[in-house]
Amino acid sequence: MAQLYFKYGAMGSSKTANALMARFNYEERGQQTLLVKPRLDTRDGDHMVVSRIGLKYPCIYFDEMRELSIMELQQNACIIVDEAQFLTKEEVMYLVYIVDDLGIPVICYGLRADFKGDLFPGSEALLVMADKIEEVKTICWCGKKAMFNARFDSTGKVLKEGEQVVLGANDQYIGLCRKHWREGNLGPDFDITKL
Predict the structure, then answer these.
(1) CATH number where 21 lies
(2) Which of 60, 138, 148, 166 has the fewest other C-beta atoms within 10 Å?
(3) How far is CA 63 from the centre of its chain?
(4) Of 135, 161, 185, at which residue does a domain stop?
(5) Active-site pick, 83, 90, 124, 183
């Protein structure tokens, strides 16, 4: 029975690497997958999913997936969505249709909340609609579980205001535990000049 999975984690928790490994596992067993991401995410170039550890694979954009026929979708053993926090509620409902009506499992990877601690629309819809929710864990500089995404500026100051979506990676974001996120504490070894 197909299910909708939401695997969320803070920045640096290897969500994208996990998505690429899941794709590899299916295809190693001769099962075709469809790797998808929202068109908004252009950090890694056109039609590419790239992890921080160097894994990469071509993908299609979510809007392109919606143009595929039912037969084309059903050729896939699984659909894997990276950066799912950028989906809209309506796009998440399309994934529900794929799971419930077409019988295709969908695994979504993304952030739960933004740098202010607010849910992303896609994440909120997935938390409500997913059959299975799993945290992909990483740690704060102090060793505690990192649950929050801190955005920082060019001076290393943690930001708490601004646009919800500013695309970036290690040069603008870091996963922190709740205490250090609240304090805006990037750690004693944080050095903005080494980013």
Answers:
(1) 3.40.50.300
(2) 166
(3) 17
(4) 135
(5) 83
